[in-house]
Design goal:
12 helices, 15 strands, globular
């Protein structure tokens, strides 16, 4: 395969595919690569100011790879095939896990108390999916056989993964767990061929590793489900790998939740805290952190005459949770670097197979 780097955005890749034929694989977000595959030539479109391109090249150099012509997907496949040498070629994916992947409900455990004020603390489970993957016994699994020998691939992955940026962990999991490919190509039914149509094909590449990936995703879903069961009405919102506790939670329930996380070997951090309000699962605020589109949330606040509390009032919230009170006294800026972004929609990751 010949890899050719081209400077341009999605529209540039779209028109290139329209004029020259081939298949267009769109990237995940405006900062990612868009790929046009024509025969044995692979054209990778990057925007010149792409931060992701910088990170991809840094990751390639970290592994001793030539940074030119790389994407996250290509590095992920190199890692699986050449570095980990995962022996998946003669193993088989399971129909039951494929059906699970098609339904897709196991990616996100979600719930939210909407249009209610409450004081809460948001807990984020670190690298939830990847942590679940590393808890497996092997990177190969068959429902009829159980875990199979994987050439120590999982043990080697445990050593390597700490150097992976978060987006690459998701890229790697996305590669292994993917069961179909979306792409765009010329519409042969159109006489003028002046448009591209979206097509899809089933593509499960990594055999029994596909089963392990979805087993790990399902494990995370069940963990969140169990946390909700323990916390009951004191869990005010859950989204994939984070949950909001209200400050009225009894000590016994609070400690039971974190004892359960410790039992599962999961690490966590405070992602947000304070006065909370949600219009829906993805629209609201936690303390002084907006969840959702900033302009949209601000408009809703104006329409409904809803205001955030001052930052110093929000900081008082965390002290009401006994589990964190001592830690907060030692480090009152524990949440100073919290991101304003939503939890990522992992299920919608576009995987570059070219």
């Amino acid at each position: 395969m010949e890899y050719i780097t081209v400077w341009g955005d999605y529209l540039a890749a779209y028109h290139f595919c329209l004029e020259n034929g081939g298949q267009l694989f769109s990237g995940n977000g405006k900062d990612s690569a868009n790929v046009v595959l024509i025969g044995k030539k692979c054209y990778t479109f990057w925007q010149k100011n792409s931060q992701r391109l910088i990170e991809v090249r840094q990751l390639a150099e970290h592994f001793g790879l030539n940074p030119e012509g790389q994407t996250g997907g290509r590095i992920a496949r190199w890692l699986i095939d050449d570095l980990l040498q995962l022996p998946y070629q003669q193993t088989y994916w399971s129909k039951s896990y494929r059906n699970l992947a098609k339904k897709g409900a196991h990616w996100h455990y979600t719930t939210c108390d909407c249009k209610q004020y409450f004081w809460g603390v948001e807990i984020d489970i670190k690298s939830a999916y990847f942590s679940s993957l590393l808890k497996c016994k092997s990177l190969l699994y068959s429902p009829s056989i159980g875990y199979m020998a994987d050439n120590n691939a999982l043990e080697n992955l445990k050593i390597l993964y700490k150097d992976f940026p978060k987006w690459f962990r998701l890229q790697l999991l996305g590669c292994i767990s993917s069961w179909r490919v979306f792409y765009q190509t010329r519409d042969k039914k159109s006489l003028e061929n002046r448009e591209l149509v979206v097509k899809t094909r089933q593509h499960i590449k990594y055999g029994a590793a596909f089963n392990v990936a979805h087993r790990a995703i399902l494990r995370n879903y069940k963990i969140m489900q169990k946390i909700h069961e323990i916390g009951g009405k004191h869990i005010r919102r859950m989204h994939t790998d984070s949950f909001l506790l209200d400050i009225d939670i009894p000590d016994s329930i609070e400690f039971a939740i974190f004892d359960y996380l410790a039992e599962k070997g999961l690490q966590y951090s405070i992602k947000g805290y304070g006065y909370c309000y949600f219009w829906d699962l993805n629209t609201g605020f936690i303390g002084n952190k907006i969840v959702g589109a900033k302009s949209g949330v601000i408009d809703l606040m104006k329409q409904n005459n809803i205001k955030m509390k001052r930052a110093n009032n929000n900081e008082e919230t965390v002290k009401n949770l006994h589990y964190f009170s001592e830690a907060f006294k030692d480090n009152p800026s524990i949440n100073s670097n919290v991101s304003d972004s939503n939890p990522p929609e992992y299920r919608q990751i576009e995987i570059d197979f070219t």
